[in-house]
Write a structure and sequence with these properties.
Elements: E1 15-20, H1 25-37, E2 41-47, H2 59-62, E3 67-71, H3 77-83, E4 89-92, H4 99-104, H5 107-126, E5 131-137, H6 161-180, E6 184-189, E7 191-193, H7 202-211, E8 216-219, E9 225-230, H8 231-244, E10 250-253, E11 258-260, H9 261-271, E12 279-282, H10 297-303, H11 311-324, H12 326-332, H13 335-345
Parallel strand pairs: 1-2, 1-4, 2-3, 4-5, 5-6, 6-10, 7-9, 8-12
Antiparallel strand pairs: 9-11
The structure holds nicotinamide-adenine-dinucleotide and thymidine-5'-diphosphate (TYD).
Amino acid sequence: MSPSTKNKNNTKPEKRILVTGAAGFIGSNFVHLLLNEKPNWHIVALDSLTYAGNLANLTDCLENQNVEFIKGDICDPQTVTQALANVDIVVNFAAESHVDRSILGCQDFIRTNVTGTQVLLDAARAANVKRFIQISTDEVYGSLGPEGYFTETSPLAPNSPYSASKAAADLLCRAYFKTYQFPVIVTRCSNNYGPYQFPEKLIPLFVTNLIENKKVPVYGDGLQVRDWIHVNDHCTAILAVIEKGAPGEIYNVGGNNDRPNLELVKMILEYLDKSESSIEYVTDRPGHDRRYAVDCSKIERELRWEPNIDFAEGLTRTIDWYKENPQWWQQIKTGQYLKYYQQQYGVTI
Ligand code: NAD
Ligand code: TYD
């Protein structure tokens, strides 16, 4: 691994950015966005390629000379130190990201989300990185009642092993800013949707099951509320944070679009011309957070960012993407995935 110091025009790149978890859902969408928006940046894309990492998410990007891919683990100090050579900015997407898997067992979540973040923070500090963006989540706040919104000063009260591990990483970042004045910025975003999302999360799981004329498992009464944001809007928020965010700050990011799961499921059913008989109500998720909703007025006011993609439009575009790219998800929904499905839902698909 020898990081190049030139970009494709054979000139020194304006910035070098390390994107961890770059082969996952949001990381890969972020690399796509950077290639469009920042053609003079050099991107070091690092990913250990767990079950959720997929080089097919980066197919076009890997041919670009401004992108250098490293298969590596954020828990390995040597790997991250090498990847950080001459890097100005780090965006840490790398994580175990699925709540249901964290309930089945959370060892990998503690390893990557907590230890991995600590290893990356230490190496980035040693490398004198100028901006470290930690991609946290609104799930660190826990669950809301029927009213109100999480602000950046709401107490952290995570309820799942996943959100507890993300809260630990989020607080480590705070501590590195307070203790060492290391320029960390934390974002806490709501539920993303869009292309390249692993089909274990609600939207891609339900869309792909329905395309195959299978049932969709709704947990409990289906009245849990989530705020949904298109992944592209999340990525533009991260770019705004890199360019205009203040070190030590936290920014909530969301779609101003909170709605009950059943309402969303009915939109998907309608677009795919399916009836409600495709719904299977299954046992609720243990510790299931009832409602998430974020107040994004800080990032809107201070960084002049706002979400642009209308939900109905973004959702239909996303469903179309899964319809048009069956080879992408059919390759995933085999082998280990089927074992996970059986363990999680008690049925085979
Ligand atoms: P994802 O599971 O699709 O991708 C995670 C990526 O990290 C995968 O490519 C995986 O291979 C990689 N990875 C895992 N462990 C690693 C390790 N030890 N070293 C290097 N790479 C490793 O997740 P996502 O949905 O793209 O989420 C990305 C980040 O955004 C996560 O930190 C998540 O907590 C956060 N987030 C996600 C959402 C959402 O709705 N998906 C919302 C808010 C915040
Ligand atoms: P998910 O996509 O797993 O995101 P998160 O748990 O991080 O919010 O789930 C979104 C919502 O959908 C959540 O309330 C759980 C619910 N859900 C189901 O009802 N059935 C399912 O099979 C899945 C995966 C999720």
